[in-house]
Specification:
By secondary structure, this protein is an alpha+beta fold. The chain is 35% helix and 17% strand. The longest helix is centred in the first third of the chain and has 18 residues. It starts with a helix and ends in a 6-residue tail after the last helix.
Length: 205
Amino acid sequence: MCARFAEEEVELEFVEPVESEDTRILMSPPDQRRTWAIMWSHLDMLKTFLESDGEFGIFCEDDIMIRKGLKQLLPEIGAAYKRLNLEILLLGYLLNYRPVQVIGHDEFPPTTNYTYLNYPDHLWGSQMYLLDRRTAKKFLSRYTVEYAKSGVNPFSPDWTLTKEGRRAAIYPMLAVEEGKVVTDHQGQIEFHRLCMEAQMDSNYH
């Protein structure tokens, strides 16, 4: 991950992993400890962002291939986030097909090679996303230990962070998961592999 971001001249900051002895994990049901650890890691990233003076934060998982030219795309992505009045913009997610193809016309070339899509609740994945400070604060105040213990929703980014507020997904994606998942569930293994094959393009990632 360090080498991939360094190649694009994008600064990368890691947060410490949430380990099994973390008191926040010890409160979880035994079969949900890994999911809770992932969620707390995402929330720790939000806290780290708010300790900076950045207008936006880009949050990502540690098993992604990133889009070439990412640094040059960031100003337009931030402008689109504000223009569309978003709270969360997905930059990398799980999709096992290509939802749209942007084709230019000689007389009317597209102003950008990217499009911003509304997405339904059954879109999964939090491989990479963008938030502003206001949304990060909102998420941290909402997704607390009390919320986790309430059982309202699974305590997971897929069920919480990516599903709340005014949202959009960029396409083509700026981050594609490597296609491997830590599970013995064959359906999940196959789905993640198909997502990577559908979105990965060696010309761009």
